[in-house]
Amino acid sequence: MREFLKRFSSERGQVIMLAVATFPVLLGMTGMALDVGTFYSERRNLQNAADSIALAAAQKLPDTNAARVAGEEFALENGVAVSDVTLTINAAADPPIVRASITRNHKFAFMKVLGVDSRYVGAGAAAVKVSFGGGAGIVPWTITQATQDASTLGTVVVMKYDATGGNTGNFGAIRIDGPGANVYNESVMYGSDSFACAVSAPNCTTGACPGVYPSTCSENSPTCDGPDCTPQTGNLIGPTRTGVDFRMNNTSTDCDSFAETFSAPDPVTGISNIDPDCNPWTDGPGKCTSDTDICSRRVIIIPVVDDFGNGASNPATIQRFALLFLEGYDSGKCQGNNCEIKGRFVKADINARALAGTYDPLALVHFSKLTE
Fold first, then answer.
1. How many whole angstroms separate alpha carbon 368 and alpha carbon 89?
2. What is the pLDDT of residues 188-212, one digit of tens each?
3. Contact 365, 262 (CB under 8 A)
């Protein structure tokens, strides 16, 4: 028994000595793990910052100076020193592009014992400014390119004509989801289910727009052939009135005027900012998700076409898309042959799930997207 206790006491002492000897190693390994963890955590944070800075700068393209100022201001607002950020801007590219890179010296706490005091950590991102090239949710009224060229921002224009102006056959509407009054009415109320695109969209017929529409994103309208869409013939007073009334009555009271929804245009670029709470394409309060939602249904996107022929045999070609605020029709004037639908032009950058078209300076709808 005495021999056992003697041996146990000796071995216990060896264990204590071994623990004391290995403790600094274990502490060092723990410290290294913590240092490596904070290093990669900072890199993730810098990557998020680089993405956001690139997007903020791209929104101001093709104005190089404005893009640089926007990127640097966003960096400062989010705790990133301007000296750590490099912005490379190519406004002449198609589409215009900005690259943001961030490099910062990361200090280590525990790895100093190994002679490693710090390492540079960095991240980079690139974003482009593109025009709205196509998508679902399009309202099937149109304006012609000539109308857009002759109008100024904030101008009220007619999107759906009536028979009082001498129009015969075509009244400013096109078939996106298909023919028929009921189909047209649904498209007016909720926007098109089908995907329509413009000539400026390079991937209009290939479906090559990953990350935008997970299943299909090419033009899939039963009555459009690429950007060429069949006119919707007939005056369609009843379906038009029902659709417009639905949109007017199902818009939030905070977004039921142009001044509440859009800011005054920038004096240089003419671009207005949309109130995030009035944007029907984001996940904010303005988003429309069901028949009963009170949301921002007066903010609409419609095609800009080359021209209309007479009847359904002459397709209209979508040149680009326009953003408008629905003004509706004059009180009591959507019956019989009288029903002109009007909207107010606005130029804005919006966040919308859409197919990116090449940058078109004449387009009224743009958005920024990350490319790398």
1. 14
2. 999 888 888 888 776 666 554 444 4
3. no
Concatenate the DSSP letters of all residues of 224-284 into one string: EETTEE-EEES--HHHHHHHHHHHHHTB-GGGSSHHHHBPPPPTTT-PBPBPGGG-TTSSS
What are the backbone angles phi and psi of residue 259, rounded to the nearest 5°?
-65, -30
CA 340 → CA 144, 157, 225, distances in Å?
15, 10, 28
Can you name the residues that pair with 231 across neighbouring β-strands? 174
Report the SS3 class of residue 111: helix
Which of the four pLDDT bands, split at 50, 70 and 90, describes residue 309? low
d(CA 133, CA 141): 17
Tokens of 29: 């390994």
Nearest to 368 by CA among 176, 89, 82: 89
Q: Are 349 and 96 in contact (CB under 8 A)?
A: no
Q: Which helix (H) or strand (E) holds 67?
A: helix 64-77
Cα–Cα distance for residue pair 115/110, rounded to 1 Å: 10
The answer to whether the bond into 179 is cis (omega within 30° of 0) is no
Amino acid, single-letter form, for residue 299: V
- pLDDT confidence of 97, banded at 50, 70, 90? very high
Cβ(96)–Cβ(129) under 8 Å? yes
pLDDT at 308: 73
Q: What pTM value is reported for the model?
A: 0.76
Bridging pattern class, strands 196-197 and 118-135:
antiparallel
Asked whether the beta carbons of 319 and 302 are under 8 A apart, the reply is no
Spatial separation of the C-alpha atoms in residues 36 and 23, rounded to whole Å:
20
Looking at residue 358, what DSSP letter applies?
P
Model confidence pLDDT, tens digit, residues 18-41: 444 554 555 555 556 665 666 667
Number of C-beta neighbours around residue 4 at 10 A: 8
Burial 87-104 (b: 16+ CB within 10 A, else e): bebbbeeebbbbbbbbeb
**202 burial type by CB count under 10 A (0-12 exposed, 13-18 middle, 19+ buried):** middle
